[in-house]
Fold these 2 entries.
Entry 1:
Amino acid sequence: MDLSFAYTGIRVRDLDRSLAFYTKALGMKEILRGTMSHGGVYVHLKGPGSSQRLELNWYPKGNRFARPYRKGEELDHLGFWTRDVVATYRRLLRDGAKVAVRPWREGRYEIAFVSDPDGIWIELLGPAKKRREANAKA
Amino acid sequence: MDLSFAYTGIRVRDLDRSLAFYTKALGMKEILRGTMSHGGVYVHLKGPGSSQRLELNWYPKGNRFARPYRKGEELDHLGFWTRDVVATYRRLLRDGAKVAVRPWREGRYEIAFVSDPDGIWIELLGPAKKRREANAKA
């Protein structure tokens, strides 16, 4: 089929703020940037250990795509894998992320959610730690 | 950095409807499925020509993540590459997608948007066709 899923575009209200968050806190790198004829800016980001791409979309006021920003439910979350959910969760909170859902154990996994500067949920998914298993049994 | 962007999760209101759309119209394949302890279901999809993953998230009524669905601006769009934007756009409309933005020429590219059963925008991006260039100059 002549169709290939290339990236996910999230709308950001402050491009510099979001770029700082995704590059510094989440360790992604800018790999592509452009301006559309209607004035909108797009920046492609790629992170370590994955070819998955994230696009940041920013529109100037009055742009035909710049509808008033409001929270919705379409984007459930962006999923990130980490080997240590609790450590990464704590580090991200220090680096500007907000608490969404505190870490919990889900079968063989540990899961937590933080939110980005626009309120987008970021899932942290990783293996449940053996030492916590041991503690839970003790 | 111990953090890897693994997938994008979109919330769907009708899992069967969205699965049919993403597998039949967009040609993606189910590669993973699971149920969370809180009852939510997740299905991972992967399409041709890309390792990019899409997760469909469905929550039963009363689930702690099942907030009322409303349109928001966080998810700008899901980006898909196609060699023939106009043909793919027309096919997707026949296959159940809705018109979002009709095809237009943007420099060397052609772009269009359709929307999925929940109203999520899907971008179709591809090369501008030579024959249209010739027509435009004529």
Note: Chain A has two domains: 1-70, 76-138.
Entry 2:
Amino acid sequence: MEQFSYYTPTKVVFGKGAELKAGEMIRSYGFEKVLLHYGGGSIKRSGLYDKIVASLKENNIEFVELGGVEPNPKISLSRKAAQLCIDEGIEMILAVGGGSVLDSSKSAAAGAANHCDPWEFSSGKRVLEKSLPVGAVLTISAAGSEMSNSCVITNEDGWLKRGFGSDYNRPLFALMNPELTYTVSKYQTACGITDIMMHTLERYFCQNGDVALTDHLAEGLLRSVIDAGRIAIENPEDYEARATLMWASSLSHNGLTGCGRDYLMRCHQLEHELSGMYDRVAHGAGLAVIFPAWAKYVYRNEKALPRFSQYAVRVWGIEMDFEHPERTALAGIEATENYFRSIGMPVRLSELDIDDSGIEEMAEKCTFFGKRVLKDYIPLDKKEMIDIYRLAL
Amino acid sequence: MEQFSYYTPTKVVFGKGAELKAGEMIRSYGFEKVLLHYGGGSIKRSGLYDKIVASLKENNIEFVELGGVEPNPKISLSRKAAQLCIDEGIEMILAVGGGSVLDSSKSAAAGAANHCDPWEFSSGKRVLEKSLPVGAVLTISAAGSEMSNSCVITNEDGWLKRGFGSDYNRPLFALMNPELTYTVSKYQTACGITDIMMHTLERYFCQNGDVALTDHLAEGLLRSVIDAGRIAIENPEDYEARATLMWASSLSHNGLTGCGRDYLMRCHQLEHELSGMYDRVAHGAGLAVIFPAWAKYVYRNEKALPRFSQYAVRVWGIEMDFEHPERTALAGIEATENYFRSIGMPVRLSELDIDDSGIEEMAEKCTFFGKRVLKDYIPLDKKEMIDIYRLAL
């Protein structure tokens, strides 16, 4: 078990009606003026916006609002939000939405607290050392941003999608009512399921041994998500399935399923170039395409094979073939791919109408223009990245 | 899945050498004067005391010290520690030890911050609304107090052992180096294993359905602890086994394995009277005696039976007897009892030299002298408590 730090300070309130506590929660920290940050019109159509506003008013919380966060949130809006926070003397940001709204809020909070361009943190030019607090009312189970240290933003100038991690990115609180996710479309639900699974899978597939406890937690979480995912796709208003997905979204990316091992986000990195360059690609859908290609590329590696076999046996209930462990391992990868397909995800680039014309550029960007090699069972430089993107065609 | 709150703000630094960061960590929060609180002489013999003192001095942290915390920590020492904090203008307490030192520190912190007798919080007379921060250097894997909201103290006046929960009891940070537990005796290691398992089992055995995710996490944690426990008893210097026990001690009592379900600490309550009245009884050993008796008393209940069967199958790998689920359930209880025995725990009161003469008094105290009935599959009033204590003879 490798050394690790674990820090998950976010206060979670989980269950029916959790969103109604927004004003009271903000008040409990003594804040009096917030930025209400959200996405498109869905929170207005659903009535959630009115509930939140009522809760703020009841608790005498003054607020300024800024909507318009898009999927794959853009730095231009975060900059605008940061400036608004500075101009209006905002004390904290209340993010009402999913991962995109949360990440836009985190980026804005970083810019506002440091009076600088928030892209400086995304680009790695500057290290975050303070930020405004961010609270969340979660409306989609996917990114886990409600407890995570991560913030992923796309810069339209060059279509670069960049993430950065910092404990200052961890939200102050998260109000999580699974009912708010009933109206999430089947497609977005499936994208969320994929993203949740991938946050744990990226941590699971590493070279460190002796992490039995973390393994058991990861495998248990994956089995729960796989079952709940099937049910939620079939019946979007199944409370228990929605609750499992929502809680798993947080636990899968708050660090728990990676304690004591490396944290290699290579599928995420490969995917960021995909949805960064093809803005129509949802992050989860991109991951469903990248994972099978990546897995088939690396699973025969001697360090990878035992992990992939264990994954197949413990998560998918596949019988171990002790003579041919590579068959077991491959069966686990295929089971994952079949599952993604069964919930409506694409599993090839062609299903996203993407051909090989952009592969060279994606790989070039993913190496940060020749400045990095991704750590993995086999180090991934531009050549290997191109191979994986091609396998995904 | 029931509504729940989840709040685990403790910053964990885990791995070899973690204890050396004590001074730096305290300094990072801006504290300049601490109470160094510990137990007997073992931290001096092991050299840990010197390392901590050196780390404090390197970081210009002034400290006052108070040792002498006993197992089943006493309110008299917490009172003394609280007064010392007040008199010396202490800003935080650094607890170096296990659950007893942590609980003594939490109690003292509560008394010091509120300028009152800390027993007022234990007895339920007063609700904790602020406390001094407590940091931990953990030396034994057991109570999980390093991340938990709980504080259990014994009042020598009447030998009452009382716990109370509050988020203000949650430590600020915990430095966890598994190597520090190499010198913990086999018996104390086994007590710790039992305590860790019981923190999850108390949450596991409840009447709430639809908690698949929490179930999987709990079962995975239990399987890991059972395996690591066997290894640590055999080879006290097995790093991975010690690391698993240490991390499991925190996760088993920080709330994770109880999310979305009731939290019925009835075995703990029954045990508190046991080690409260018979001070020589270690808490873990008491639990190893109480659990099998309690389980055999309740498992046939229609709400309990499916849980006990699931436990037997998923944690102990027992084949499900679909015709006679009660046989499966009982086999799981017996497997637990055999495991406790195999690691050197007593499983009957007689092994602790306790006969039936104190049972009536323990039951009376456990009802808070007629003021409470413990919630369980079958509500536990004095009669039921006596039955369970008798089953444990």
Note: Residues 11-180 of chain A form a domain with the Rossmann fold fold (CATH 3.40.50.1970).
